[in-house]
Each structure stands twice: as structure tokens, then as C-alpha cells.
């Protein structure tokens, strides 16, 4: 009996030592939950997203964010619908287009990133003063038909009593990637550009920023995080963690200078001087382009549909509650 007890004690001691050894070896942090994000383009306009990654706000929520740039609304939505991504960052109008196709698994907007248009009106010649009437009779290099930049641009022009179809020559047959090059080569009197291209042209004397389409179009859900309804049902807790990390970044961006923000997001724009990034961030902050929280409100949703309708691109008006889920954002900001 004594021999059995002694053997049992030795076995217990060995098991205890082994368990302590295993605990000591397992000193790494718990495995993070992966979430795949497809962004429509790489843009300083999306600064809060990069801040959330670089400042570790997503990691604090236990998430491993895999960010992919899909370069175009169609490609971004294809990635989402084909399960190539869990979440898409793209314009809210895309959810309306998908809904019009009577999808059995609709795409739902759950967190807002930007709340204004992000483009600027750039003139070839710097005027002593700018008046929207100066666009009449001019040649205008616009964005892709049916895309939010073009629709917001036309909306802003119409506000000043100008018919973009009859009062000027609108060029829309140039690929997005080549619009800036076309203008630099001498095509057009005016062009609608995103940053940092607009500010870069101004620095180089190629063109001059004379107006902001973001200021003209008002608040809209210009760029939002969205996902399939089925993904929300199965991964709501993951999306809540993601949105909480995003909200931390939104607050950080709001409470820090353009210089500080530029320094944080600079790794995402290796070919852009940090001073230019700072200029662009300051321009977007000054016109309140970055959403202060992830909640997409109904007024913004209705403004979006008004802009789409005036552009002749609204398939059918969609109720706010059908394609917008604010429960995740509301819980995240508590």
C-alpha cells in the first residue's frame, strides 16, 4: 500500500510539474479573431480606418484585421458577395443597387466612416474669384456615371442653377485611374478630383482647387462598412468589436491634429510626402468629412437617395430600416 501511495504521489507531482511547464510555455496572447475588410480604394479619406489599425484599437478588441484594397465599387461588392471578404468599405449607394437585384441576402450598412463627398473642383486657370457660373460653356472631366462622386458632383453643380448636361461639356469616358493624367495632359477646363491628387496639382501649378463638392452636397453616408445580412446574424459580436475599435479611432482623429494623424497613417501612403498627407487631412477635418461616430442616421440616408434620384440613378427608394442596421454602432459607442 505504501508503495502504491508513493507511486501515486510521484505521478501526481509529475503531472503538476508538466501542467506548470505547459502554462509557462503558453505565454502568448490569446489567438485573435480574424476579419477580412475589402476597401474600395486606398485613400487618405479613410484615415480613421488606418488609425484604428496602427494605434491597435482593433487589436484591443481581440481582432486581427486583414485589409485588402479592391480598387473599384464593382470589384469590392463582388468580393463581399462571393465571400472573398467579410466586410466591404464602399459607398452606401452600392447596397441600394444590390437590393434592386432582389438579393436573397441583402447587404447591410452597419458603420459609417465618412459623411461628405471627398472630391474637389479643380480649375486649370486660377481665377481672381470663383463663381459657379464660370463652369458654363466649359469642358468638365467628371467621374464614373452612377458612382457617388459623379452624382454628388452633379448635385453640387445643380444647386447653383447649372445644368451639367446642357450648360457644359461633360466628359465621362475616361477610366478613374486616368482622369488626373488626362487633365494634366491638357484635357478639360475643370476636373473633379480626390485628394491628394487635387492638392498635388495645386502644388505643381497644374490646377487650382476652387470648390469642395463635400461642402456642396451636405452630409451623406459617403463611405460605410457593410456586410451581408447572413454574416451579421452569425457574427454580430465580431462586428460589435470591430465597430468599437473604429469608434475609438474616430474619437482619436477628432481630438488630434492633422500633423499627428498624418504621421500615424503615413505607412499606407509611402509615395506621398507626409506634409502633403497633413494638408489633405486638415482639409477633410475642416469640412467635417470624417464621421464623428459610426451611426448612419436617417437624414443622411434620405439625402443620399435624393442625390441618386436627381442623377437618375435611383432604382427604387429604399426605406432606411431595410438596408441600415444601427444596433451594432449604438452598442459599440456605449
TrEMBL record:
> What are the entry keywords?
Signal
| Record field: transmembrane | none
Q: Which family does it belong to?
A: Belongs to the bacterial solute-binding protein SsuA/TauA family.
Sequence ranges assigned to domain SsuA/THI5-like in this UniProt record: 47-256
Which protein is depicted? ABC transporter substrate-binding protein
User: What is the superkingdom listed in this entry's lineage?
Assistant: Bacteria
Which segment of the chain is annotated as a signal peptide?
A: 1-23
Q: What Pfam families is this protein classified in?
A: NMT1
Claim: Transport is one of the keywords in the record: no
Cited SUPFAM superfamilies: Periplasmic binding protein-like II
Localization (cell):
Periplasm
